[in-house]
Design brief:
about 650 residues, mainly beta, C8orf32 fold, Jelly Rolls, 3 domains, eight-stranded mixed beta sheet, signal, DUF3857, Transglutaminase-like, Papain-like_cys_pep_sf
Amino acid sequence: MKKLGTFLSLFFILTTAYAQNFNYGAITYDDYEFDRKKIDSNANAIVLREFGTASIQVDDASGRPELIFEHHVKIKIYNKEGFKEANIVIPMYKDDTREETISELKASTFNYIDGNFVESVMDRKAVFTENRSKYTRLTKFTLPNLKEGSVIEYSYRLKSPNLFNFKSWEFQSEIPKVHSEYLVFIPGIYNYNVSLRGFQKLTDQKVELSKECLRISGVSIDCSKITYLMKNVPAFIEEDNMTAPSNFKSAIYFELSDVQNLNGSKTSYTKSWKDIDYELGSDKSLGSQMKRKDVFKELIPTLTKDAPDDLSKAKSIYNYIKKQIKWNNYYGKYSEEGIKKSLDTRSGNVADINLALVAALSAANLDAEAVILSTRDNGTVNKLFPVMSDFNYVVAKVNIGETSYLLDATEPLLPFGLLPLRCVNDQGRVINLKKPSYWIDLKASQKNTTSYILSGRLTAEGKIVGTLTTYTQGYAAYNKRKEILRHTSADEFVEKLDERLPRVKIMEHQISGLDSVENSLVEKYEVEFTVTDGSNQEQFYFSPFFINAISKNPFNLSERNYPVDLGAASDERIIINLSLADKFELLEKPKDMAIGLPNAGGKYLLKTSMENENITINQILQFNNAIYQPEEYLSLKEFYSKIIQNQKSEFLLKKSK
């Protein structure tokens, strides 16, 4: 996917703007009466004003430079749907030795009562923290005494040891913003690459000189004082089938390039891939783990003794690692325990498992590499220069003949060569210990394929009784296997399925291929569908669209500025053959249909017929691309609209005299 970004010079002046915070608690009648039609008449809440500032200061206790970030926001709540904007979550970084901290937190709700604003101050006891992961801690709070029409306000100060990414700023969020302003002070000895992502443009930017803003070891340092301003920012509306919102929201990002040391030397943080390759190759938690062929030296002959070729060897090793090490649900590109310990304890993070896979494949004299990547929910990576913090995951790659296979052994239900959908995100970087790293496209190797075949009869009581057989492959089979195995047994899964489908009764079932992840998953059900109420046996309507009917358009925006990312191409086929209990005359039926997306992007075919008391329905829905660009969005929307409209039609049958 094309990365969206406009790189900005720290010293480029667009127009004149003056950074200014606003007074806390100074709520006005104009705030209370703000007409949302000015920006978005459908908004449940609107950010009236938002101000942030970030600077680097020296900590008095440690003497180390740290980032100080202050955030102040005022929000108008219009209805109960907007109450969720009063649930605040502030993510904070932490590791074994350092962590971000919050202080000076204030939060208030203002309600207009009897001609006056009444402030409800949040109790400090309402603030709590949650450890989300090894590296993330969340500060959470909810503002009190919410009413429709309330104005809420909060501010806080964050101290961070993380200078590399400075502090990003999101101009765009899930609700519109009238005024969003960010002021940064960047010392002259720090050089940052600055990028503005998203489709909204800055209203104003100003760069000034701030004299002696920082003092280190008795030396005064000047700063660039930069103001970024964006007004009347529309809400960012998420739809299904997209990667991380951070790829598309309008926001400003900072990445440290280098630091000019006081002794005249320079420390570079923006390195070349050649530098990164050397560092990763010698890193004890990545490259050193890839080299641990010794761990598998005695095991490999046993694992591969019955394998006739390299592909069979790779599959045997892949299946062994999947079974041997259970994923602890932690991501990471670096091994936490080391592959030897993970094998012994039979537990590890993503890197423990997949670096073990690389080492084991290499021990079998197969051409194996590691691929570092960013998951779909983590955003795309910067390809202009290496930013290692962009990557949060690693998988294995094995090259056999002219074919390369990407492998992730964290998921026991994944077939060989199919990455979990979370990893199918733009490009990854292949790390090879013997040659330079390179980019590789991360694409699904299989389609999302489902076929439904129903053979049965339509009874005089308006019921369809017959056999429904479902075949799934690719991600469809993977997701269905996961769903089934979440239950204690296949019987329990079918029982719950029967409960969820009020118009369907499942009499018998047979599920095969549940453990054979390389093959199709086959579900066979003896079923009874209720398609009419049976009140009129002489003439009645019934809809043939009772299997995966499309009743809601997934694309409802007037336009979409980011791609539709399905993850994988898909193919769904529905075949229904019904015999009729009596002789009927066909009076109406759904129109046969054949429509396609531009550039052979997909198609929908429908053909229905009745002959000799037999009804046949054939339906195909195909999406040939994994990704559709924004300019194709309206075609997708219209495509679904036509299908939905046609699926409202029904068969009308009249009993023959």
